[in-house]
Structures are given as structure tokens and as C-alpha cells.
Write a structure and sequence with these properties.
alpha+beta; single chain; 3 helices; five-stranded mixed beta sheet; 13 strands
């Protein structure tokens, strides 16, 4: 889950106070002009706090994940683990013809293991995109969440809102992922976490 923010350092402090655990700085996305901090949610899932890296003067807007059109700190994207990117690419292209570009990369973690990934790239806009982007970690030595300590946080609920929920439900059904889509004029992604400070809704 990607929680895009205006100021990463301020949000890390806010989350430490709100959740009772300090997000761990993850690093820089040099080719995208962003940086992140992570919260391990266990079960090979994590929450990624993401912001523009203003020290990166090579990459300009529009950057990915809605960070350049962000009206407030909020969840703007979710990623699903997949070993069938080409199949998922066709599904996403049918949903939105601008989706489906596959890219990849690799890096070494702090514990020395190699992370390799291929992903269907998330778009720069809109601010909140309910269609997921897909990541294949199968070439990695371990899922990236395993390099994070147990932070006492777990995902209890993930749901979305959309004015035409049946469209999004069909997309997720085709991708074989269950998520509740509630009808609302607002498009949003929402989660409930169990944390050291109790249940927190984001």
C-alpha cells in the first residue's frame, strides 16, 4: 500500500506518534524522483510512505503514484504480488489503455540479499488510482518485507470507494483479488491497521 505524502520526514514523526512505531527509511527511487519509508505489516505486505525527493533534480513532474497532484496525505496506490505479469498487463490494458508498461530493476538490501523485480508501472495520475499495479518478486532471494523487523503492525481491512463500484469489482475479480468496493462519489483507498497504539484507520 502506497501512502503518498507532502513531507516524508514530518510524516514519519506523525506516524510514530499515531501508530506507536517509527517507519524505517527505505531509500530513494532515483529513476522516479521519490523516496520512501516503510512499515512492515507482516504476511509479505508493507505500507510505503512515499514523497517527492526534492534533491533529485534530474527527474521532474509528473512523477509516479500521484505525488505531484497530491491534495493531501493519503493512500494513492496499491500493489499486488504477481508471477503472471503478461496476463495482468492484458487485464489492466483492457481496463485502461494507458496502463500496462512493464519495467524492472534490482538492488541489494542492507542485509546483503539481492532484490530483483519486474512491475507493471503505476501511472503519474490520477491522484488516487484504484486499479492496482503488479510486482513480480520471484527472482529475488526474499520478499522485501523480510528485511524489515516485526513492527507490531498488521493489516486488518483494506477497502475502496468509487461512484461506480461494479467497474472496479470486475477488475479485481479478473485479477483474482478480493477487496470491498463501497459506493461513494469519492474515489479513495482506505485501510485499518492493528498497531501498538490499537486499531488505526488510514
Amino acid at each position: 500500500m502506497v501512502y503518498a505524502v507532502h513531507n516524508l520526514e514530518e510524516t514519519v514523526l506523525e506516524f510514530e506518534k499515531k501508530l506507536g512505531v517509527r517507519p524505517i527509511f527505505g531509500g530513494y527511487h532515483r529513476s522516479q524522483g521519490t523516496k520512501n519509508a516503510l512499515i512492515n505489516l507482516n504476511n509479505e505486505s508493507y505500507l510505503e510512505l512515499l514523497s517527492v525527493d526534492h534533491t533529485n533534480t534530474i527527474i521532474s513532474s509528473p512523477r509516479w503514484m500521484g505525488v505531484d497532484v497530491l491534495s493531501k496525505n493519503q493512500i494513492t496506490r496499491i500493489a499486488l504480488k504477481s508471477n503472471t505479469l503478461e496476463n495482468d498487463q492484458a487485464v489492466l490494458k483492457k481496463h485502461d489503455a494507458t496502463m500496462g508498461k512493464i519495467s524492472g530493476g534490482s538492488r541489494n538490501t542492507t542485509n546483503g540479499s539481492l532484490l530483483q523485480w519486474r512491475l507493471i508501472m503505476p501511472l503519474s495520475t490520477p491522484e488516487v488510482e484504484l486499479a492496482p499495479f503488479m510486482i513480480d518478486w520471484s527472482k529475488s532471494q526474499a520478499h522485501p518485507s523480510t528485511s524489515l523487523p516485526d513492527m507490531g503492525c498488521t493489516l486488518i481491512e483494506l477497502y475502496a470507494t468509487h461512484p461506480r463500484p461494479e467497474q472496479i469489482r470486475h477488475l479485481y475479480e479478473t485479477l483474482d483479488f478480493k477487496i470491498e468496493i463501497k459506493e461513494s462519489q469519492k474515489i479513495s483507498l482506505n485501510m485499518v491497521l492493528n498497531t501498538p497504539n490499537g486499531n488505526i484507520t488510514l
